[in-house]
Amino acid sequence: MLSKQSIKNLRRVAKFLFAEPRRFNMNAGVEPTLNHVMKEQPPCGTACCIGGAAYLIKNKTKLIEPLELGWNRVAGEAVVFLDLQKEQEGRLFHVSSWPLAYKTLYNEAKTAHELAAVGVLRIEHFISTGGDE
Predict the structure, then answer these.
(1) How does pLDDT run across 52-86, given as a tens digit for each residue?
(2) Which of 45, 68, 101, 124 has minimal CB crowding within 10 Å?
(3) Cα–Cα distance for residue pair 107/74, rounded to 1 Å
């Protein structure tokens, strides 16, 4: 079961993905885009996954020094912000743990907007299942 605050913050992440689709990359925590093949390069030069987006929203920042962070810190703060259980973190933050339909959509997306739309669909499915899928 997800708390009301968790659902509110997950929807804030979904809104972020729609607003900044070129930043979305599930292979990044919060990292320079130079480290990743991106569908479209974001002007800020930073890529983020769902957990990374939660971190950015929580800390009210657009840019961070990604090399000074580690995924453990980013994920830890994102988990607290989203009020997730440990097993829910894996289900949401790792494409390999997503339901097959969403993995397939993510892997077949051709543009940054399509990737972001899949991310939003994944978040909404996660909400609708109470974090169980």
Answers:
(1) 899 889 988 766 555 456 767 888 999 999 999 98
(2) 68
(3) 24
Question: Which domain, by its residues, includes 47?
Answer: 4-128
Greater pLDDT, 55 or 46: 55
Q: What is the pLDDT of residue 120?
A: 98
Tokens 């609708």 sit on residue: 128
Instruction: Tell me the pTM.
Output: 0.87
Residue type, 11: R
Q: What is the 3-state secondary structure (H, E, C) of the chain?
A: CCCHHHHHHHHHHHHHHHHCHHHECCCCCEEEHHHCCCCCCCCCCEEECHHHHHHHHHCCCCCCCHHHCCHHHHHHHHHHHHCCCHHHHHHHHCHHHCCHHHHHHHHHCCCHHHHHHHHHHHHHHHHHCCCCC
Contacting residues for 41 by C-beta, under 8 A, at least 6 apart? 22, 33
Please name which of 17, 20, 19, 22 lies closest in space to residue 33, comparing C-alpha atoms.
22
The pLDDT assigned to 42 comes to 61
76 domain-assigned? yes
Q: Establish if 16 belongs to a structural domain.
A: yes
